[in-house]
# Entry
Amino acid sequence: MKKERIAKSTKSTWITLGIVVVAYVIMQTLAETGVLSSLVKGLLVPLCTYAIMAVSLNLTVGILGELSLGHAGFMCVGAFASAFFSVCMKESLPAGPRFFLALLIGILAAALSGFLIGIPVLRLKGDYLAIVTLAFGEIIKNLVNVLYVGRDENGFHFSIKDVLSLGMGKEGKVLINGAQGITGTPKDSNFTIAAILLFLTLIIVLNLVNSRSGRAIMAIRDNRIAAESIGINITRYKLLAFSISAGLAGMAGVLYAHNLSTLAAQPKNFGYNMSIMILVYVVLGGIGNIRVSMIAAVILTLLPELLRELQDYRMLIYSIVLIVMMLFNWSPKAKEWREKYSLKRFLGKKAAKEEA
Amino acid sequence: MKKLVSLLLVLSMLSALLIGCGSTSADNNGAEAGTDSAAVEDTAAETDGTTEGEGFRVGGIGPLTGGAAVYGIAVKNGAQMAVDEINAAGGVNGVPLVFSFEDDEHDPEKAVNAYNTLKDWDMQLLMGTVTSTPCLAVAEETMNDNMYMLTPSGTAVECVQYDNAFRVCFSDPNQGAKSAEYIGTNKIATKVAVIYDSSDVYSSGIYTEFANSAAEYGIEIVAAEAFTSDNKTDFRIQLQKAKDGGAELVFLPIYYQEAALILSQANSMGFAPIFFGCDGLDGILSVEDFDAALAEGVMLLTPLVADENDKTKAFVAAYEAAYGETPIQFAANAYDAMYIIKAALEQSGAAADMSAEEICDLMKAAMLEITVDGITGEMTWTEDGEVNKEPKAVKIVDGAYTAM
Amino acid sequence: MSSFFTFLINGISLGSIYAIIALGYTMVYGIAKMLNFAHGDVIMVGSYMVFLSMGSLGLPPVLAVLLAVVVCTVLGITIEKIAYKPLRKASPLAVLITAIGVSYFLQNAALLFFGANTKMFTSVISLPAISLAEGQINITGETQVTIIVCIIIMIGLSLFIKKTKAGQAMLAVSEDKGAAELMGVNVNGTISLTFAIGSALAAVAGVLLCSTYPTLNPYTGSMPGIKAFTAAVFGGIGSIPGAFVGGILLGIIENLSKAYISSQLSDAIVFSVLIIVLLVKPTGILGTKISEKV
# Structure
């Protein structure tokens, strides 16, 4: 992966960006002409959301080389920060600027939390780092779940106990209602916005990877001591990558929050389950391989929906497919088999060496 | 690139599997969307299962997998039973109901996916969703589409905030206030402890309203102890605090699974206050291997009293025969929901070939006119989508629910 | 004061269960260098086995527990053979993801087999409760047995590793797989043995968990699994005494913070303590220092 990176990087970047553009144009045309089913139409924004998550986590796991199990926590921060802003400003701002500001707020809040969490966490290594990120993810979810915020004529009220202890006036409105979260977020995101954000994410990450900073970050991943010895500031670059990754996850959170009218931090959407699910996209797609992790995210988000027809057996089959896919993609035997019978051999192209 | 190829391989394997399962053909291949929509059409063709043919297409949404699956499955079963009965008795003015139920995993995003799947199936009426948080997300969609929506068990106030949405169950504030009123006016206790699930919308909603109206009825809350869905196995601490606070009554606005644990843990601690709960407690006696003696004297407000009259008895018996377990109130609400849809359809004069919007407009008016005498009581609806029915207070005596 | 002791003892009992589960995590990690996320679900399977064999087959508790241990052991070995072994030379992350797949599989299979309904678990323990301080403090039979079983397992396992050949082989494999193989250690067999022991312990933990907190559903194992994993890291993953210390401490912290700070925030508090401990001691309380190779 390392040796041809620079020579091939430009071409590879263009291919990745091209895929997004082509996919967008195709889907948008199909949607306009009414060929698409409601299900697929409804899935377009979530697909982009999870693709962004996959790309952003790949920055941490693949490029920086640190295992994070709390990525959904940053998504949660971005989602809640932006949804809170949007709900507050629902009446006073038109949709366009409101969403733009909400987006900025979501990204900044998530990046900031990534930065703050990164300072202590990035000193740890390997699985210890993984468990601490998992812990942070759970803490964020837990805190959001006990947060009550209301607004009345006297301004904002906060509580971490219940609605009653907000002590609001008669006209007061509860904005964040603990476990029920935020309801009534305006539905400001759409497929075009989502596709643009995914495109931006790719540009940011791919540019970072091919830049001087990116090479420094990968040098740290490959050999920390060697990188340090040639004068790379380890902490700085680690924090840089981690904060960007968190900020992008926050962006996905903004999309998520503005696609559904209700936002609650459940184990399912912002708990470790989700963090792990995103990790699945990254690992299945190939650690460090931005493009394929994006595609893996799309496939794995579609898969449970396509399996709906299996009714009760849906999630069981899904888990089996997941295991089989992992074995197929990663086991040395399957690799040999694939090399023997790969499509590439028939096409006569040289197999690209991609595994880290 | 190799990974990409292998991923695509797996995907094609999968779609082959899908098309293999669904016997209907998928002939519009081509772009990546082609396979998707083809698979979706397959789904649509398959899901209605036994009830093929024309009729009113009623969709249902609820969790069939995940931690809340027990509620979704109950709703699915109860509704299916009602549909079968209605169809056997000649349907709605001779037109059968066609019912399809989709899994939402108790997740708002998945619920919207399920809703869209049902729309692709040409759903005309929605009976759902089962749980509150997904219900809020789906309510927004149905409002945009002007799709009639009747939630059997979505208790949060905002579930029915739009004029196309109605509900069968009580709302959270309603139950909280009614509980406080019942405890206060019947002078059951003055010192009350509450143990509630702060991560659950239903539970914290009831608690909030209960606490709001407690003072009005002379109730002193001596301990309000929360737990979360990640932490719902050990209640000894909450019970200890209730005991230390001198509570005469412990109010449990929670579901029966946790309540069963609370009862057995309270018993092992030697703490025996009066336990009082809401409709979530219904079902506690049917928990497998639960020692019913522990629930002796527990009071609850519930929509369904199993042996209240012939209708409820028949429902319980039929449900047990069909699914091999005692129905919980979710099943009862769903069962009623289908009869409500039937009654409203008959009132509105809607026809099966109308679009969902047309039916919805007719149903909005019809819902305010009908009175349905269901197994959960006699119900009418107000313009805000709320149901008017009286909760029944029952007490568990000798291992059975007895009306008070 | 009496309630403090009650909270403390309950915490130790909860911690003992975490410790037994954590042992499974730690042993597997030490040898296969993988986080076996399916471990929590093996607990659930074990509990269902006891539930079914006591309920439907009418077996006495001891036999039921034995049966569960056997089933879980077989299950553990099978999972290892099918899902993990093919990936032994792949990245540890790949195995982690496969483990998650196995975890989903077990949960959903249980959902189909046993239904979504929560079952009340009849305690397998019929010891009377001990009353201390004039009935102020009540120690239930479950609590006593849990703590005792945990101590026995700890001692037994330590002796097994120190004194037996198989135990020494496990140590050798965890230190250096390649070198162990050269010395004639059956690496595959040792790894299978580790999974077997870990899964057997999971069955025991499941029985104790469900006896103390008598409900059972397909998702029973997942949260204790994650907590126990935390406990294993807390104590220093790979270290057997570490799992014990980590488990007990985690149980106590969780219970006391629930009692005295906030029952809603207890998880956040537990995880915060974990983070603080790891920042001070980056490899856990009893973890060995990782030496950096240049």
The two ends of chain C are 54 Å apart (CA to CA). Chain C touches chain B at residues 3, 6-7, 10, 14, 51, 55, 108, 111, 115-122, 129, 135, 138, 140, 209, 212-215, 217, 219, 223, 255, 258-259, 263-264, 266-267 (CB under 8 Å). The CA atoms of residues 26 and 237 of chain C lie 5 Å apart.
